[in-house]
Design goal:
Elements: E1 9-15, E2 21-26, E3 32-37
Antiparallel strand pairs: 1-2, 2-3
């Protein structure tokens, strides 16, 4: 029996009333995931070597 690894396929992006970025994704097996990014307190992504 093989182990299952979730592959997160992006479905949608939305913004909450509080300004948070919300990423909705799913796996082909039916599992769903929601990731919330707080834009107010997060540092911007920095390119490698910066």
């Amino acid at each position: 029996m093989a182990d299952h690894v979730h592959v997160r396929l992006s479905e949608a992006l939305s913004v909450s009333e509080d300004g948070e970025l919300i990423e909705h994704s799913r796996c082909r097996c039916g599992a769903t995931f929601t990731k919330v990014f707080d834009a107010k307190s997060a540092e911007p992504d920095q390119p490698p070597g910066s």
